[in-house]
Every structure is written in structure tokens, then in C-alpha cells.
Amino acid sequence: MTNNTANSGSGEPVSGLVIVNYGKNQLVETAAGDIIRCVARRGLPQIVCGDEVDWLRTGDNSGVIETLKPRRSVLYRASGNNDQRPLVANIDQLVIEAALEPALDYFLIDKYCIAAELAQTEPLLVINKADLLEDNDRERIGVLISEYRQIGYRTLLTSALENTGIEAFSACLTGKTSILVGQSGVGKSSLIKRLLPNQDIVTGRLSAASGLGKHTTTSTTLYHLPQGGRLIDSPGVRDFHLATVPGEALGNGFREFRPYLGQCRFNNCRHRSEPGCAIHAAVAAGHILERRMNSYHRLMS
Ligand code: GDP
Ligand code: ZN
Quick one: pLDDT at residue 2? Predict the structure, then answer.
């Protein structure tokens, strides 16, 4: 084989799944479970973890990504100048983790719920550190859980420390591609360890395949769950910021607002203090929580 053929690849492109994104390089998993270190052909959009691609072999364990297959969903991160950068693709479920420690941040939870809705992925709210709950906390958490359930979101209570609620959590992840987000310190790494007892073995294999030395946990990585399903761990996504969304689209991100959108007296109602506002009427009637309307206004400004 000449150098030329080696560089431009040989054979037909075959499909694969991007399981790690190092920026310049991607690790692509083949249907047989082999891991190939790839570079993307010039001119392709930015490739991210979770992408399905066609790649061409250029060496024993190396290849070139030739085409990017259509994405079912994309999670974007707002960058400095407020344009959007894709972070991960083909996610079915955004797992929003929260805990009493660090303090519950309702606005952050809402932001993640909206991001999930706008990315067309299903949110799942997981309250971790159940073992820390005192009686009065239980009441607060109970209210929080029932409020989100009323909106239509699934919620779970877990303790990574005491290994409780993990089976129910695992069951929610089966057969789907999920990503875990939430404030630092709520227990994301601890929960991932419970879900992926063999994480160290997998990262060892990824290090070997990358040829880059130790696989750093700062790279967005897709793991296969033992019970079937995929979990993407992405430090970059963990505390990502929602890109600015126009008011109209934002309203749609609040699931319980939807029946009332378009019912306001004014077409361009910002649902602040305009007369004939259907959202305000729904708040007054107890169909929408005031807290959620406040989150909407904070995201608008
Ligand atoms: P991350 O920053 O979200 O990845 O959080 P970590 O998994 O690193 O956990 C942060 C801290 O919370 C660590 O000290 C963990 O031991 C602790 N932690 C994690 N899960 C639980 C839990 O269920 N209960 C309690 N009490 N502590 C936990
Ligand atoms: Zn209105």
C-alpha cells in the first residue's frame, strides 16, 4: 500500500458512534465494539460525542470521519459571543441532578428543564443525597417533587452514599441515551460510579485507544450501561449555560405554559403586566406556579 492510499483511506466508509471527543480527535466505536481513533474530514460540521458517523479506515486503529449522519437532537452551549456550540448529540434524556447540599437552586433546575425541552430531550429530575434529609427537608423535597410531577416531569430520590434509589434510576436510563447535568457537588460522579461499576476499566481501554496517554475525565465520554442504554459524562455540560432564546420559543420551553400561549390579548405579550395576559390568569387560577413564571422572566431578561 502506498502512503497515499493509507492517508486517503481504503474500502467503503462504515458507520460508527463517536464515544469520546478530544477536539482534534474522536474515538469512534464500530458495530463490533472496536475503538478507532479518527480525525474528521475537512469541511464537516463540528463532530461531538454521541454523533453517528461514517468513517473510513486509514490504519489498524485509525480512520477518517467522512460523513456526519443527521442528528436527532443537539445540546448547545452558549459561548462568549452568544453563538451556539454543539456539545453532544442524539440525547434522549437530560438527567438534572440536584441535592440539598449544595443548596437547592430552583432557577437552575428550571433552566435545565427548559434546555431539555428546547433540545427536544426528556428531562428527568434526580434529587440525590436522600440520606441527608431531616423531617422538615422531606416536606420541602416532597413539595418540589410533586410540583415538577404536576408539570409532567419524572422525578426520583437517590442516595449515592447509601446506594438507594439506584435501581429505579437505572431503569429510567435503560435503552436511552442520557446525559447527567447539575451543580458541582450534588453527587454526579458518585452516581455515575454506582451506575457504571466498571468505569475504570472502560477509561483504561479508552486511554489505550486514544494513544494520548491517560484518558482524562475532562473529555466528554459516552459509556454503555450494563443494563443497556448509554450515559454521556461531560464536565463541560455539567454546568452549561443556556443560550439566549427568543421569548416565544422560551414560553414553549415551559411545558405547563403551552395551553395558554397565544391566548393573551396582545400577540407580543411578554407576560409581565399586560392586561388580558393568559399566563397571569393561569397563575392566579393556580394552574401555573408563580415561581415558574418568575423563572421565565429571569430567562427573558
Ligand atoms: P459532583 O461534583 O456532582 O460530581 O459530586 P461528587 O460525586 O464529587 O460528590 C460531591 C460530594 O458529595 C462528595 O463528598 C460525595 O462523597 C458526596 N456525596 C455524593 N453523593 C452523596 C449522597 O448520596 N449522600 C451524601 N451524604 N453525600 C454524597
Ligand atoms: Zn401574556
Answer: 39
Q: Which of 104, 188, 190 to mutate to test the pocket of ligand 1 (most atoms within 8 A of CB)?
A: 190
Return the ligand 1 atom nearest residue 182 CA. Answer: 3
Q: Which three cell numbers stand for residue 288?
A: 401555573
Ligand 1 centroid – CA 188 distance (Å): 7
The average confidence (pLDDT) of the chain is 89
What is the model's pLDDT at position 1?
A: 40
By alpha-carbon position, which residue is closest to atom 12 of ligand 1?
187
Cα 238 to ligand 1 centroid, rounded to whole Å? 14
Q: Cis ω on the peptide bond leading into residue 102 (within 30° of 0)?
A: yes
Give the Å distance between the CA of 199 and the centre of ligand 2: 48
pLDDT digits (tens, 9 = 90+) for 116-125: 998 889 999 9
Please give the single-letter amino acid code of residue 173.
Answer: L
> Average pLDDT for residues 218-232, to the nearest whole number?
91
Name 60's Cβ contacts closer than 8 Å, sequence gap at least 6. none
Greater pLDDT, 122 or 207? 122
Angstrom distance (rounded) from CA 96 to CA 144? 14
Short-list 298, 300, 256, 299, CA closest to 278: 256
